[in-house]
């Protein structure tokens, strides 16, 4: 069974990631992180390969992938915007900020813009509670979100 991802052998790349992490205690999470780093997401076709290699059920692997919010089942956009949805950010206007960002980008949570420019993801606490509401764009924290910062973010991800 030959599987291809963008012209590259997904099977060989998946087995390489598994081999790199399988000797660890509790290797499933490191393997999933490795696959997401390798492909930008965890391809569905890798789940049976992981299950077989670790001698666990496909349902167990699927359950872990779908339980944790950081794992994607499709490629992310060129930029990833994570918006804090924790209580401190919500108490400081986070729901209105979420609505503004969603409208400005034309996408909801767990969606990628049609042009592939940005993926919007919820995150539950960035540890920036004193600077609420907050977000993270491509790994860089942004505090005290307001309409001006939303405009800057939208302009940056669209450029």
Give the CATH topology of the largest domain: Glutaredoxin
Chain-averaged pLDDT: 93
Kindly, what is the distance between the CA atoms of the first and last residues, rounded to a whole number of angstroms?
Answer: 40 Å
Order of helices and strands: EEHHHHEHHEEEEH
Strand content: 15-25%
Write down the domain tally.
Answer: 2
Output the CATH homologous superfamily of the largest domain: Glutaredoxin
Number of helices: 7
What is the CATH domain class of the largest domain?
Alpha Beta
CATH architecture of the largest domain: 3-Layer(aba) Sandwich
| Mass-distribution shape | elongated
Q: Which class best fits the helix and strand makeup? A: alpha+beta
> How many strand elements?
7
Q: Enumerate the strands of the largest sheet in spatial order, edge to edge or round the barrel.
A: 4-5-3-6-7
> Which stretches are poorly predicted, pLDDT < 50 over at least 5 residues?
none
Task: Output the radius of gyration.
Answer: 18 Å
Describe the structure.
The chain has 159 residues and is of the alpha+beta class. It folds into two domains: 4-67; 79-158, 3-Layer(aba) Sandwich (Glutaredoxin), CATH 3.40.30.10. The protein is built from seven helices and seven strands. The protein has helices at 10-21, 28-39, 47-54, 58-67, 87-91, 94-105, 147-158; strands at residues 4-5, 8-9, 79-84, 111-112, 118-123, 135-137, 140-142. A five-stranded mixed β-sheet has the order 4-5-3-6-7. Strands 1-2 form a two-stranded antiparallel ribbon. Strand 1 (4-5) and strand 2 form a beta hairpin. Helix 1 (10-21) runs antiparallel to helix 2, helix 3 (47-54) crosses helix 4 and helix 6 (94-105) packs parallel to helix 7 (147-158). The chain is elongated and about 50 Å long. The model has no long low-confidence stretch (mean pLDDT 93). [2Fe-2S] cluster binds at residues 84, 89, 125, 129. InterPro entries: NADP_DH_HndA-like, NuoE-like, NuoE_N, Thioredoxin-like_sf.
């Amino acid at each position: 069974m030959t599987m291809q991802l963008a012209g590259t052998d997904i099977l060989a790349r998946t087995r390489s990631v598994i081999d790199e992490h399988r000797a660890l205690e509790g290797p499933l999470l490191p393997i999933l992180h490795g696959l997401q780093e390798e492909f930008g997401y965890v391809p569905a076709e890798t789940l049976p390969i992981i299950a077989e290699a670790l001698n666990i059920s496909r349902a167990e692997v699927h359950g872990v992938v779908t339980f944790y919010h950081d794992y994607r089942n499709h490629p992310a956009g060129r930029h990833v915007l994570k918006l804090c949805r924790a209580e401190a950010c919500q108490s400081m206007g986070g729901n209105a900020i979420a609505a503004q960002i969603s409208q400005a980008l034309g996408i909801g949570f767990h969606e990628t813009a049609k042009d592939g420019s940005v993926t919007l993801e919820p995150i539950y606490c960035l540890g920036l509670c004193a600077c609420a509401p907050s977000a993270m764009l491509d790994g860089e924290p942004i505090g005290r979100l307001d309409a001006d910062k939303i405009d800057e973010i939208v302009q940056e991800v669209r450029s």
